[in-house]
Amino acid sequence: MLNQFVSFPEPGQMQALAMYDTNVSAATSESIKERMPHVLSVAGSDSGAGAGIQADLKTCAARGVYCSTVITAVTAQNTVGVQGVNIVPEKFVSEQLKSVLSDMNVTVVKTGMLPTVGIVKVLNDSLKQFPVQALVVDPVMVSTSGDVLAGPSILDILREQLLPMADIVTPNLKEASALLGGIKLQTISDMRSAAKSIHDMGPRNVLVKGGDLPASSDAVDIFFDGVEFCELRSLRIQTQNSHGTGCSLASCIAAELAKGSQMLQAVRVAKHYVETALDYSKDIHIGNGLQGPLDHLCKLKRNVHSSSRLQRFNPDDLLLYAVTDSKMNNKWGRSIAAAVKAAIEGGATIIQLREKDTETNNFLEAAKNCLEVCRLHGVPMLINDRIDIALACDADGVHVGQSDMPAHVARSLLGPQKIIGVSCKTPEQAHQAWVDGADYIGSGGVYSTNTKANNSTIGLDGLKTVCLASKLPVVAIGGIGLSNVRSVVELGPENLKGVAVVSALFDRECIATEARKLHTLVSETLKTTSAAS
Ligand SMILES: Cc1ncc(COP(=O)(O)OP(=O)(O)O)c(N)n1
Ligand SMILES: Cc1ncsc1CCOP(=O)(O)O
Ligand SMILES: [Mg+2]
Question: Pyridoxamine kinase/Phosphomethylpyrimidine kinase domain: from which residue to which, for each copy (predicted)?
Answer without folding.
Answer: 46-289
